Amino acid sequence: MSTASPTAVEHLDVLVVGAGISGIGAAYYLQREHPQRSYAILEARDAIGGTWDLFRYPGVRSDSDLHTFGYEFQPWREEQSIAGADRILAYLRETAAEHGIDRRVRFSSKVVAAAWSTAEARWTVDVEHPATGERTALTCTWLFNAGGYYRYDRGFTPRFEGVERFGGRVVHPQFWPEDLDVEGLRVVVIGSGATAVTLVPALAGTAAHVTMLQRTPTYVLPVPSGDVIAGALRRLLGEERAHPLIRRKNIAQQRAIWRFCRRRPTAARRIIRWINARQLPEGYPVDEHFNPPYDPWAQRLCAVPDGDLFRAFRRGEASVVTDRITRFTEDGVLLESGRELPADLVVTATGLVVQAFGGAPLTVDGEPVDLSATVAYKGMMLSGVPNFAYVVGYTNSSWTLKVGLLCEYFCRLLAHMDAHGYDVCRPEVTDPAMPTKPFLDFEAGYIQRAVATLPRQGDRAPWLTSMDYSSDVRLLRSGRIDDPELHFSARPAAAPTDSEVAA
């Protein structure tokens, strides 16, 4: 009879889920502030980069400047401040390699479930390896989800009547085929969000013609792809000294535009319309195609570097149609107005499928966690769920600005627990009558489709999911860690063994 003991399950202090822009940032702060702690990053795919490795459609880029979309600790050194996915991906991989983070990534490792045990004060995480179908388990003291907010394996496409009759090709941007050649094709791009306004100018000039078919207009604002002031500061002060000044300038600029739009929506609407009219051909029906029914920044404002979208319209290489689809035909798309748009290729830039925490179910002491019944604590933890943290960036500014602050707070929280001998941290709402509201106050369709499945937020700190950088600096970077809504405890004492009882 064999007396070999079963293989021990590996235990880590912190398990980070996701090797994209959020996971790399989390790893940097963790190893800088807590080098003694063990950690690993689990990545379901086979590459670093997350969104910036997944999306391959033509022209894919960030519409936030890279001086703020990049990390505070890693200057963006490119001339263009609005950059394409290839440069962003290179930046992320260079950052991971420079700080040794790439050596902590375990690829082809998808988290499929996580269970918290109060008795053991740890998470047991089930991991699936897609390449082989094998499943393994890890345990960790803290589970840190940096896996983003949408499904990587499925994009959102509405049901279109008659699509099976269409003689051309239908493609979702999230799964752009490598062999797709649009030269000479009549292309219809369905949508008016950031993906659509990126695709249209990228395809124009190669395709025979590109039509952006939108149900509702979006606010579109041209921005320079380069930053003249940033370039001057770098030449004058050098890269390292200029970097924090450029970030502060761009953060202030972002906040000023957002606040103006929210506080003076009528004036903001007039200014954006005036800018659009100057960018479009004379006599263009601006109010038909660029006059949304909602206020600026009720949904994300689309930035187009150097006005490339408007340039495609001026050249006649692209056009915009505001209408609703009745059905697909053999040759294109029939609209409610009765007009038919001929097409060889239809691109459904119709959005993402929002999914919290990669879709992996959480349990606490055997009880499933109903996310919609939880309340978000400081936008990074969940009520009633111990030793679990996540990152969700800003919707009205550069995503990574919020990521950095959340990671700093997480490291401060760990230091506080070390100093007081705590092993477990669990947010709890002390006022059961506190009103709650949706997790994100954002009207974008992809958020609204999923909002009922997401956590809630409260009407007061620390239960608000703030979208204000200045407020978050005070709350997350310098605010007190201990507060009545955060419960700390030590690991339960282990039960004595039979031999210890006998003694």
What does this structure look like?
The model is unreliable at 1-6 and 495-503 (pLDDT under 50). It contains 14 helices and 27 strands. The relative contact order is 0.14. 29% of the residues lie in helices and 23% in strands. Helix 6 packs antiparallel against helix 7. It is globular, with a radius of gyration of 25 Å. It is an alpha/beta fold. Strands 1, 2, 3, 4, 5, 6, 19, 20 and 23 form a 9-stranded mixed sheet that branches. Strand 14 (325-328) and strand 15 (332-335) form a beta hairpin.
Quickly describe the structure.
The protein contains 14 helices and 27 strands. By secondary structure, the protein is of the alpha/beta class.
Uncertain stretches: 1-6, 495-503
Helix fraction by DSSP (H/I, runs of at least 4): 25-40%
Q: Please tell me what the overall shape is.
A: globular
Oligomer: single chain
- Overall pLDDT score: 92
Biggest pleated-sheet summary? 9 strands, mixed
Q: Determine the N-to-C terminus distance.
A: 30 Å
Number of strands: 27
Individual helix count: 14
The rounded Rg comes to 25 Å
Strand percentage: 15-25%
Structural class: alpha/beta
Question: How do the strands and helices of this protein lay out in sequence?
Answer:
Elements (H helix, E strand, L loop, with lengths): L10 E7 L3 H13 L5 E4 L8 H4 L11 H4 L15 H14 L6 E2 L3 E8 L4 E8 L4 E12 L4 E6 L13 E3 L14 E5 L3 H10 L5 E6 L5 E4 L4 H10 L1 H25 L1 H15 L6 H4 L12 E4 L2 H7 L3 E5 L2 E4 L3 E4 L4 E3 L2 E4 L3 E3 L7 E3 L2 E2 L7 E2 L3 E2 L5 E3 L8 H22 L3 E4 L8 E3 L6 H4 L7 E3 L10 H10 L7 E4 L8 H5 L1
Parallel strand pairs: 1-2, 1-6, 2-3, 4-19, 6-23, 8-17, 9-10, 9-17, 10-13, 11-12
Antiparallel strand pairs: 4-5, 5-6, 7-18, 14-15, 15-16, 19-20, 21-22, 24-27, 25-26
